[in-house]
Amino acid sequence: MSNASGSLRGAILGTAVLLGSVSAPVVAENPGGWEYSVAPMYLWAKNIDGTSTVGGMEAPLSLEFADDILENLEAAFAIHAEAKQGPLTLFAEYNYAKLDPSTDAQFGPFAVTVDINFRDVMGEFGVAYAFSDSGSTRWEVLGGVRYFDQKIDVNIDKPDIAPGVLPIPDEISGGDDWWHGFGGFRVTRKLSERWSFLARADYGYQDSDNKTLQATGIFDYRFRSWGSFFVGYRFMDTTYDNGELGLDNYGFDADQQGPALGLNLRF
Question: What's this model's pTM, rounded to 2 decimal places?
Fold first, then answer.
């Protein structure tokens, strides 16, 4: 993880609600038919640590869920769905968040206020195939494509004592959207009639400036045939740089991790 060395000392915020690929597979109740699950609201109480680059200027990210993300979350939506038949599972997810935090930054001897408007979209579509299933333990290989779309507008309120002195613009805007493929594994272990554990690890890659490492561990409690609660931990480390020069440059290099919980509906 790179350390910020630019003059902008503020923070942009990531979404408080993200939906990961963690809805636990169910024990087959409809042999030969399709089984479906939908997790409409997945709370990811994550912290963020890393940097974002806008127009060649680095902004350090050091954000805690309770103190920073909840306070500045303007809008969020997340959904994850799976369709399973025998050894085959199709899965898809969509995550949207919009945040508008304000923070203080230091440029030389001057303190400034930075107002940020940050939109973060992430989605994926993939396929998992079970290459081993003993009834109590199911091993799957998975692959797919992942999409990111980020946009940030930064307004800088310069101090009255130095109008025109600070060598920075009043407003900076940037962002980009990108894709990459990913591959990995997941395993589901049935612990009892109601409890199961799911672990997933995957790696997304296009080149050295576009990659993501993700790992998730989830405990799932089946309280009815149509639903279950899940709780666990999710980690995602993303590196991206579009390679552009000047104000067109945009980069994101941060890890996001924290507890995750939600409700899974099954039919």
Answer: 0.79
